[in-house]
Amino acid sequence: MLGIEPKDLVEFVPVVDDREYRAFQAANSRGILIVPEVYGEAGRVLTSDGGDFRKWTKHNAPSISIQVQEKQPLLVRRSASYWLPLVFLATDIALPIYLNLVASYLYDKMKGALGNEKPRVHFSAVFEETPSGVVKRFNFEGDVDALQKLIKKFDLNEFLDDTRTPD
Amino acid sequence: MTRALQTEFGTHLLAEVSLEAKKVLRALNAINFNEAKDVASTCEALLARDTRASMQDEAQLNDLYVLKVYSRFLLFYTQTWETVLLQRFSESWRFLQDSLDCLRLVKKFSAINIGFFEKQLLELEKTYPYGVFFSVGMKVGYYECSVCGLDIDSDSCAHMRGQLYSGVLAQAIAREDQEVDHIAMVPNPRDKRCVVQYDDDGEQFKIVRYLAELLRAARFRISDFGTLRFSKRRRPNPGWRKLGRNEQCYCGSGSKFKHCCISNAYEEGDHVDIVAEPRNVEDVAI
């Protein structure tokens, strides 16, 4: 083992400074907002696959509103992974719906994959947990199988009551 | 029954290209690389000049694109095996990656049966020593669409990355403020060509070198290669010495032999069998 083998990640982290998310909510926002992330000393960047994901969603799930908060330089990583953006989810997009959207995007991108090639995906989503009203950030790293497994394990009702990570 | 390509035009041309693919395979089996390259190059040139596709018919143009990629694959495939047999392994790795990239496009945009090539080349890939790759991280302003020249992520561009439009692949070209941000070592890069360079006569290439020697010695033909069988095998430990049970161990531990290396007479190592599967080229579905 070289110590660089990718590890899966599924975590929910309470957002300490939730002002930006609250401002998004206060604007009566709907759907998904792609948000640049602070990166190193260079300020904020967007992930390289974020623009493609936004366009794909507009074509394939036109009922879902998806916008980019502001144009920023793109951080391009040349690994075989898909780097999807940090997003804010409005109340009309539950996290499991977003996970299904990401899984569909990945299956589309996997067309033409050879043998057992399975791309990995990295993404984060900020949402308001109900009924507690706590703003949390969900971080995921893994391949499409791990994502599909997570979607299956999600019981929407249980998730809304309690943000325990599925076993 | 699913058609391999979208149009009658494409299906008709595919029949011709498949015949050329078999010619390439027969020439490779005869270790006649020049003939294989001639066939593949001629095939590609003929398709490039083919004007039978109606310029208005998007499906025909897309089929033609797929066939051009398939014929380009035949050339890369030939160059892969040629450089393997010439024991120019670093170069052969790049041709192998070119071949695999072509297969991905053919598979994405058609139902052409590439199973034989896919399985064989993925097995060939395993004979190389590369497990870590260098991946460059960059910051760019935006991506330009290779079809219309607009920002491909914008709504004003009507194209999606990686999709075909009238025989043209929409690709994202990095523009503005390009700067290298970092270089990472990754096990799964988008491009496997960025690797540590080894000498072609290095120990690292021993499996692919052995494969080349078997093919050179006509132990089996190129089209017969398709399977590697990895296993663990016990073999005598060359550093092991037999001592009396109560003697001090040779390894320098200070312990008695019976409490130390007495059971290390054999060691377990990785083993790979190259399995030949004789097949008639005429029966290979390509």
Radius of gyration of chain B: 25 Å
Briefly note the structural class of the backbone of chain B: alpha+beta
What do the pLDDT scores of chain B average to? 92
Strand content of chain A: 25-35%
- Distance linking N and C termini of chain A: 26 Å
Distance between the termini of chain B: 17 Å
How many H/I helices of chain B?
6
Task: List how many beta strands of chain A DSSP finds.
Answer: 9
Number of helices of chain A: 5
* H and E order of chain A: EHEEEHEEEHEEHH
Going by helix content, strand content and strand pairing, the class of chain A is alpha/beta
Helix percent band of chain A: 25-40%
Instruction: Considering residues with a beta carbon less than 8 A from a beta carbon on another chain, report the largest interface and each chain's count.
Output: A-B, 32 and 40 residues
Largest sheet of chain A: 6 strands, mixed
Query: What is the makeup of the main sheet of chain B?
Result: 2 strands, antiparallel
Q: What oligomeric arrangement do these chains adopt?
A: heterodimer
Helix/strand order of chain B, N-terminal first: HHHHHEEEEEEHEE
Structural commentary:
The complex is a heterodimer of chains A (167) and B (286). Chain A has 167 residues and is α/β, with parallel strands linked by helices. Chain A is 30% helix and 29% strand. Chain A has helices spanning 19-26, 50-60, 95-109, 144-153, 156-161, and strands at residues 9-14, 32-35, 37-38, 44-47, 66-68, 74-77, 82-89, 120-128, 135-143. The model of chain A has no long low-confidence stretch (mean pLDDT 86). Chain B is globular. In chain B, helix 1 (8-29) packs parallel to helix 3 (58-85), helix 3 runs antiparallel to helix 4 and helix 4 (89-109) runs antiparallel to helix 5 (115-126). Helix content of chain B is 39%, strand content 18%. By secondary structure, chain B is α+β, with helices and mostly antiparallel strands. Chain B has helices at 8-29, 33-49, 58-85, 89-109, 115-126, 206-216, and strands spanning 133-140, 142-145, 164-165, 168-169, 172-175, 179-186, 225-236, 266-276. Chains A and B meet through helix 2 and strand 6 of A and helix 4, helix 5, strand 1 and strand 6 of B.
